[in-house]
Amino acid sequence: MALSGDNRAMNALHCTDPLLIAGKSYHSRLLTGTGKFKDMDETARASEAAGAQIVTFAVRRMNLGQDPQQPNLLDALPPDRYTLLPNTAGCYNAEDAVRTCQLARELLDGHALVKLEVLGDSKTLFPDVVQTLAAAKTLVADGFQVMVYTSDDPIIARELEAIGCVAIMPLAAPIGSGLGIQNKYNLLEIIESAKVPVLVDAGVGTASDAAIAMELGCDGVLMNTAIAGARDPVAMAGAMRKAIQAGREAFLAGRIPRRRNASASSPVDGLFF
Predict the structure, then answer these.
(1) What single-letter DSSP state applies at residue 152?
(2) How far are the Cα atoms of 19, 215, 258, 268 from residue 23, in angstroms, in the given order?
(3) Burial of 85 (0-12, 13-18, 19+ CB in 10 A)
(4) Which residue(s) pair with 57 in the sheet?
(5) Residues 219, 221, 223, CA angle at the centre, nearest 5°?
(6) Cα dihedral 173/179/181/184 (nearest 10)
(7) What is the pTM of this model?
């Protein structure tokens, strides 16, 4: 089947504008999670609809074959199709986070790419940046490729990059809140200073939020609740895929400057009559 003009343009964009994480190239800038779906089938269908290539999962909560009587994530999201991103959800100190990543490496035969999150509060799920910094230092020294969930503090983001994290993932609003992008200027400061990918992680509620993150210049967005908690998760995954693509294209195209006064689409000088 011949590709439409839009599809040819999108394929060209994928080839010329890849997301690079830890030396690996990805054409999708939408990363998805595996929590809160009703079952593994819905997880698989939503991941497919999102066009995700990197899918994160909580090591402490997901069966990777430890229990042969329970559904196995590796059957729903086979590693030959997806880059699985173990995360340390539920950890509240550096020691637990490091131990969880080491467990994931054992379960996944030496897998090095991990998502580090160390929480400081069970109500807001804000990160404990002191413990996050400590865990990041240990993990990087141990050969892990660390994508790190953090606050929107540009100084902390700079420290995490200096430690050697391969991606910085600041929150846009509290995890699962759906409040959207609440901190544009902090995110811009992080984006403009970073030499590694910056991905919004947490706070997205709907497709327009994802587009805004990409228009700001984020390299990608990681989301779970916004998809899994939607009335139709698979349809929402497709909407998020389109929003990410549109936001990235708009960022690359360059928006017009904001003006207080009108600027006519058709010039008023040089009229024929």
Answers:
(1) S
(2) 10, 24, 37, 52
(3) buried
(4) 86
(5) 165
(6) -70
(7) 0.89
64-72, long-range: CB < 8 A, 24+ apart: 64/107, 64/108, 65/107, 66/107, 71/39, 71/40
Tokens of 54: 């990197």
Round to whole Å and give the CA distance between 92 and 90: 7
C-beta of residue 165 within 8 angstroms of C-beta of residue 134: no
Enter the tokens of residue 130. Answer: 């002191």
Residues 76-110: tens digit of each pLDDT: 999 999 999 999 999 999 999 999 999 999 989 89
State how far the Cα of 116 lies from the Cα of 127, in Å rounded to an integer.
10
How many residues are recorded in the chain? 273
pLDDT tens track for 5-32: 555 555 555 558 999 999 999 999 999 9
Answer whether 86's CB lies under 8 Å from 101's CB.
yes
CA distances from 65 to 42, 68, 182 (A): 19, 6, 39
Which structure tokens are listed for 86? 């173990």
Do residues 116 and 132 lie in contact, with contact meaning Cβ atoms separated by under 8 Å?
Answer: yes
Give the CA distances from residue 232 to residues 49, 177, 225, 237, 253, in Å, rounded to whole numbers and listed in that order. 12, 18, 12, 9, 31
- With H, G, I as helix, E, B as strand and everything else as coil, classify residue 13: helix
Task: Say if residues 54 and 85 touch (Cβ distance below 8 Å).
Answer: yes
Residue positions annotated with a catalytic role: 115
Contact 70, 260 (CB under 8 A): no
